[in-house]
Amino acid sequence: MICGCSRTLQGMHIYKLRGAGKSCHGNTTGVIVAVHHKCLVCRGSFSRRLREDQELRRNVFKCLQQDTSGTVQRQLNRTPAMIGCSFVVHRKFFGEIGLLDPGMDVYGGENIELGIKVWLCGGSMEVLPCSRVAHIERKKKPYNNNIGFYTKRNALRVAEVWMDDYKSHVYIAWNLPLENPGIDIGDVSERKALRKSLKCKNFQWYLDHVYPEMRRYNNTVAYGELRNNKAKDVCLDQGPQENHTAILYPCHGWGPQLARYTKEGFLHLGALGTTTLLPDTRCLVDNVKSRFPQLLDCEKVKSSLHKRWNFIQNGAILNKGTGRCLEVENRGMAGIDLILRSCTGQRWTIKNFIK
To answer: What is the pLDDT of residue 281?
Structure first.
């Protein structure tokens, strides 16, 4: 198992240990300060080029000590998880909760697993702002040529053990089917047994008491790329965000083409939002005036019916407010348009349905 390559500067440990010493079940981490791998600049804290090693130590230490306002903070702040694997924890408690998951492979996921596990199993996780960790990240991670695969694998492992009814969020985010995702996450029976023996709380408690800002997508019925039977090589795509108009684009299955159909009949398009503090994915709207489908903030659309759609697998996508269908129009050499018009029998299929 490999965590981020970090170096904690001397003199920073004392605050971390004092904070962690307040409770045997506390897990304390410092603030990670990113350092550019070429010019060794502390992002957001220090802005000139550092050349000699002695100068590097002196100036990086300076930017680690102070926040952006120039003051040092010593108050512990609760956090649902942590960045990387630089933390202080009581050894006995760490052992009782199973250390880090030995089933994680190559890179990613262990910090999220630890954060969720600590909270659900009787502990707490806190950040001590005056403890700073400089992180010089390599331009290219040397562990494996396919880091993305292992990031997905480890995320699914966390979801299966700890996230209960919310595990679907991870599958949706990665555009993977809930059944047979094609990724072997290894045996998780021991981790599930550990959770049961520790009598840990459920993930709903974590959302209610630790991370209420996390967006919840349990209303999802179907997700993935949306394809039309008249143009199977292109998919529904959010297009340039500033245009606020959905388009058709060659299929690649990444974030801009992640469609999500909900129980309420909303059709969202784009990568999942993370917290309620940031904008959510926009939804498809028929505003009556335009022949092109609009992509807008669902909560700001006043007409409920104009943002609701009837859709079944291999069927039409029909707007409940206008009766118009989402269809493709082939203009020959001029390309293919995504339009709204009277239904002509075109059919749409989406990659994944939740049973």
So the answer is: 92
Confidence check: pLDDT of 16 > 80 = no
More confident residue, 246 or 6: 246
Q: DSSP labels for 245-310? A: B-EEEE---SGGG-EEEETTS-EEESSPP-BTTSPPPEEEE--SS-SS-EEE-GGG---SGGG-EE
Binning the chain into helix, strand and coil, the percentages to the nearest 5 are: 25, 25, 45
- Token pair listed for 256: 């801009």
Q: What is the pLDDT of residues 94-124, one digit of tens each?
A: 999 999 999 999 988 999 999 999 999 999 9
When the candidates are 2.60.40.1120, 3.40.47.10, 3.10.100.10, 2.80.10.50, the CATH number that belongs to 220-353 is 2.80.10.50
Give the whole-angstrom CA distance, residue 134 versus residue 45. 11
CA distances from 104 to 2, 8, 90, 111, 151 (A): 9, 24, 22, 11, 9
Strand ranges, E, within 9-155: 26-35, 77-78, 87-89, 124-136
Res. 43: pLDDT tops 50: yes
Q: What is the pLDDT of residue 86?
A: 78
Residues of the chain with CATH 3.90.550.10: 7-209
Q: Where in the chain is the domain with CATH 2.80.10.50?
A: 220-353
Residue 208 makes CB contacts below 8 A (sequence gap 6+) with none
Q: Where are the alpha helices (DSSP H) in 97-233?
A: 110-120, 147-162, 168-173, 189-197, 203-209
Residue 107 makes CB contacts below 8 A (sequence gap 6+) with 2, 141, 143, 144, 147, 150, 151, 154
**Length of the chain (residues):** 355
pLDDT at 159 over 70: yes
What predicted TM-score, i.e. pTM, was given to this entire model?
Answer: 0.81
CATH class as words, domain 7-209: alpha beta
pLDDT band at 49 (very low <50, low <70, confident <90, very high): very low
Q: Output the six-digit token pair for 154.
A: 């480890």
Question: Can you tell me which residue has the tokens 């489908």?
Answer: 293
Helix (H) or strand (E) holding 338: strand 336-341
